[in-house]
Amino acid sequence: MSLPPISALSPLDGRYAAKLAPLRPLMSEQGFMHRRVQVEVAWFIALGDAGLAEFKPLSAESRAYLNGLVAQFGEADALAIKEIEKTTNHDVKAVEYWIKGKFEGRTELQAASEFVHFACTSEDINNTSHALQLKTARDTVLLPALDAIVDKLREMATAHADVPMLSRTHGQTASPTTVGKEVANVLRRLQTARARIAGVALLAKMNGAVGNYNAHLSAWPEVDWEGFSRGVVEGLGLTFQPYSIQIEPHDYMAELFDAVARANTILVDWSRDVWGYISLGYFKQRLKAGEIGSSTMPHKVNPIDFENAEGNLGLANALLRHLSDKLPVSRWQRDLTDSTVLRNMGVALGYALLAYTSLMTGLNKLELNREALDADLDAAWEVLAEPIQTVMRRYGVPGAYEKLKEVTRGKTVAAADLHGLIRSLQIPEAEKQRLLALTPATYVGKAVELARRT
User: Fold this and answer.
1) Is residue 363 domain-shared with residue 234, that is, in the same domain?
2) Tens-digit pLDDT profile for residues 159-211
3) Is 294 part of the annotated catalytic residue set?
4) pTM for this model (two decimals)
5) 219, 149: one domain
6) Given 3-state DSSP classes, what are the helix, strand and coil percentages for the chain, each rounded to the nearest 5?
7) Catalytic-residue membership of 113
């Protein structure tokens, strides 16, 4: 029975179902079954090409038919496998029986049907399928979503490269920067994190019940089964894992999930910063007709997209970190704790994708408020204590730091206060004029250059 989204236990399949449509076919149980069928078919076809006397290479017609089962696999096929599983109570065996059922009326395939799942343990199929799921989800959904954020940040860094902004360290006024430079900081961090996600090699093993090709060699001792398995795995676009127990060790999964979590942490940091900048008035949010910010305060335009992103990034990371901590651990040659945990990979990545979507929505609403930025800078002349005392130290003025501390620390400072001090200094006249011309808005160092470099 198909349940309406309003009754879904998880908001990923309820409230936010539409936003996760790209991920659902890949990381759902249907997506898992699809990849199992793909792996079983790839193994079966490869066995026919292995030069075994008992299994001749398949005809072009049979190959096309088998590859069609993979290419056209859909919801009806997944449901048919689930129906078989009601009898087998074993999901991988149900896939095997479904494939064999598709051989009916095809003499060549029926004659070779015992080579479906030949010498494989369930984990040979499952671990390879998981790797294919993650590869497709990473390459076609997650990385493009992160790339969209990267592109948006690059656009913002360039557009606002020369817009001065008051910094705050420890929440207190500090040396000015530019909006673009602060965006560039996040951009560079996210680019590095993205590269680490993309660089994780996705591994798979197809070496039998405990990783030694026991069953394979019992049937054909003379066959190079390790080389054969490598060919199948690499033919699927994955990296071959030569050493394993019954399960692939999952270290690469931990590496991948840690890499995604690191990118997510950067985006949590950024979401909170933008939330703060909106609170300060540095950014306004474009309004949408009909939207309501508060049920009782009509004036409010809440930064809900950034709050949504932060919350969902936290959920994603909680799951990702559990996955990366748990999955590489297995008792002896295997236990089943990894199996149930792995079914939640899509949930973890779903919360991440939901957060990326919310963040992009929020970023696309932002409008810079130059008035608020300029007003904040003009009220913070105390930040020029840094350059003044630094120039004083250059020319050997004794107690430079202490003099500026006395004039500025904990006080409201006006331009006139600093200008009076500057004029009294025993430094070259040209240096005095340079300091007198300085304002909080122009004291930004190389910020503009650094922002534009991105």
Assistant:
1) yes
2) 999 999 999 999 999 999 999 999 999 999 999 999 999 999 999 999 999 99
3) yes
4) 0.94
5) yes
6) 65, 5, 30
7) no
